[in-house]
Write a structure and sequence with these properties.
This protein is mainly beta. The chain has six helices and 29 strands. It has three domains: 287 residues, Cysteine proteinases (Cathepsin B, Chain A), CATH 3.90.70.10; 148 residues, Jelly Rolls, CATH 2.60.120; 42 residues, no CATH class. Helices cover 11% and strands 29% of the residues. Strands 5, 6, 8, 9, 10, 11, 12, 13, 14, 15, 18, 21 and 29 form a 13-stranded mixed beta sheet that branches. It is globular, with a radius of gyration of 26 Å.
Length: 571
């Protein structure tokens, strides 16, 4: 249906399989067999206030503000007869940041590519729609897709509505790569409402904010291009971009019979073409009860990173605690990866599950994961960094120094996350959820059919010492009220988990190799000295570069130079 964001509907019959494992606490991880029914997920998801909204740095804002005056708002799009408004909104938000950060002045990224490959190709989200371009979506789905490095690509590579099937080989092309997606929430959450000051701070700091609301003509005044819905029973159906506000926008401008009690409205950019509204723009009352979400998307040029080490293809579905009592506010998660090349690790990305969450990242090299060494952190701590993220959502943290890795080497990334209110600080995939729907009855909601089939394990820990795998395990909740669950999941019993949402990025390096690193293992150490001695004594073939001082020959001077480096003396 034109001009409507079709809510994601994930319908499927799903049978649970018995899984002979139990971890941490029998009340949390357990095994059982459930009877599934055909169900629909995200039916009337409802709205709720953010549990712990980040406080703005100031409560003083100008009476009116318009991002168009900054020259960072891209042209109005026309979604036509497709449910792609969510993809357009996410792309618009990213384009604004591309201009703001000086990457280019007129970015035009493909919304069609994002909408199509969210539901097509390798490991897509499920879609109940016959046409994937009418599947609808959310900020969370956009973040999950883009964080896989599925896009963003330029419009010319996947023009809007030009083809209903895209070349699968173009799925993982990225002219820009997602770095952050502020204020997105778990796939299972309800739609989150925010205060005016929270939204104003985002916009005032030059962010184009992807928001949703109920868009029907019943509540729209075409004469003044204004929208106000006072009915809380209405379900959001459309995504737009908030780019400004006016505290003095007259309440009388709204449709007769549907007027708010006070002045004030948000300036919004729609995706229904320039012939609609005021050249594609309109106003939404501060008091519109359906206005929710506040996603902000950030990207970096595609060549910033070379390799994405990841297991969480479907992104943040739900949150868990590693604490058996589900009361502690800190927990750890980790993934072990095998280096695909020699490019050093330069960044780590993950989700935080509430505002002002604290993080501590450690990257380990020379990890030897085995039955005798089940811990993912048994290697050498090669880098660490800590900080706080003001907004929940997806974040990329650049390491202070690149971590050198060798192709085929196992390395791991561990993150400690600390919340202030919710004990569920660890973001994870989930394949399905079991909800109590009556006496001795259950409903099974399918999120994706493969998260519990992953062979690569993820790990969580309460103390950073004892680690437990998540993949394929069932998890039950003691305090689901902290999860901001969609209405259809309000009686959640358990979920089947996939991987934790934790990635590592490597980057190409143009730095010349250290000439004293004879064996090219990424470091100058005693192994190089031993190799040099073997070459001198003829027990090792001289197939290495050993003329370290570039004087045209390999001699004792080269050996002295290497020894000097190792002993940090000048000879």
């Amino acid at each position: 249906m034109k001009k409507i964001m079709l809510l994601l509907c994930l319908s499927s019959a799903f049978s649970f399989c018995t899984n002979e494992t139990a971890y941490i606490n029998e009340a949390n991880f357990y095994t059982e067999t459930e009877i599934s029914e055909d169900t629909s997920f995200f039916t009337a998801p409802g709205l709720t206030r953010a549990l712990n909204e980040a406080e703005p740095e100031t409560d003083f804002f100008p009476e009116s503000f318009d991002l168009r005056t900054k020259g960072i708002v891209t042209p109005v799009r026309e979604q036509e007869n497709y449910g792609t408004c969510w993809a357009i909104a996410a792309t618009d938000s990213a384009e604004t940041q591309i201009i703001k950060n000086g990457f280019e002045q007129n970015p035009d990224l493909s919304e069609w590519h994002l909408a199509y490959f969210s539901y097509s190709g390798v490991k897509p989200f499920q879609s109940a729609a016959e046409n994937v371009f009418n599947s609808g979506g959310t900020n969370t789905i956009a973040a999950a897709t883009l964080s896989r490095w599925v896009g963003s690509v330029y419009e010319e590579k996947a023009p809007y509505a030009a083809s209903y099937e895209l070349d699968p080989d173009t799925k993982f092309e990225s002219d820009y790569k997602l770095s952050d997606a502020w204020n997105v929430h778990a796939l299972t959450s309800s739609h989150i409402k925010h205060s005016n000051d929270f939204l104003k701070e985002l916009i005032y700091n030059e962010n184009a904010v992807s928001a949703t609301y109920y868009s029907r003509d019943e509540f729209y005044n075409p004469d003044t291009f204004s929208q106000y819905c006072p009915d809380e029973s209405m379900t959001v159906d459309h995504a737009v971009i908030l780019i400004g506000w006016d505290d003095n926008y007259p309440k009388e401008n709204f449709k007769e019979g549907y007027q708010p009690s006070e002045n004030g409205a948000w300036l919004a950019k729609n995706s229904w073409g320039e012939d609609w509204g005021n050249s594609g723009f309109f106003w939404i009352s501060y008091e519109d009860v359906t206005l929710c979400e506040a996603g902000c998307f950030f990207s970096v040029p595609g060549d910033t990173y070379s390799t994405n080490y990841q297991y969480d293809e479907t992104g943040w579905t739900i949150s868990v605690s590693a604490d058996g009592n589900q009361q502690a506010l800190s927990g750890y998660m980790a993934n072990v990866f095998t280096a695909e090349n020699d490019d050093p690790v330069t960044a780590v990305s993950f989700y935080t599950t509430e505002d002002n969450a604290e993080y501590e990242i450690t990257v380990y090299t020379d990890v030897e994961l085995s039955s005798n060494k089940p811990s993912p952190v048994n290697g050498k701590a090669a880098a660490s960094v800590s900080g706080t993220h003001k907004y929940s959502g997806f974040h990329t943290v650049t390491l202070d120094e690149p971590v050198k890795i060798r192709k085929g080497e196992q390395f791991s990334v561990a993150v400690k996350l600390t919340n202030h209110e919710s004990p569920y600080m660890l973001p994870v995939e989930a394949s399905s959820a079991v909800v109590s729907s009556g006496f001795f009855s259950t409903q099974t909601f399918l999120f994706n059919s493969y998260a519990n089939e992953e062979k690569d394990p993820s790990y969580i820990s309460f103390d950073g010492k004892s680690w437990y795998t998540t993949t394929g395990k069932k998890y039950s909740y003691e305090y689901p009220e902290y999860l901001n669950l969609a209405k259809s999941l309000s009686r959640l019993r358990s979920v089947t988990l996939g991987n934790v949402c934790l990635k590592a990025y490597s980057s190409h390096t143009e730095t010349a190799p250290d000439p004293l690193d004879i064996n090219r293992d990424g470091s100058v150490d005693t192994a190089d000295f031993v190799l040099m001695m073997k070459i001198f004594y003829g027990t090792e073939e001289d197939e290495y570069i050993t003329d370290l001082n570039n004087d045209g020959t390999t001699n004792i001077a080269d050996l002295i130079l290497l020894k000097s480096r190792l002993t940090e003396t000048e000879l």
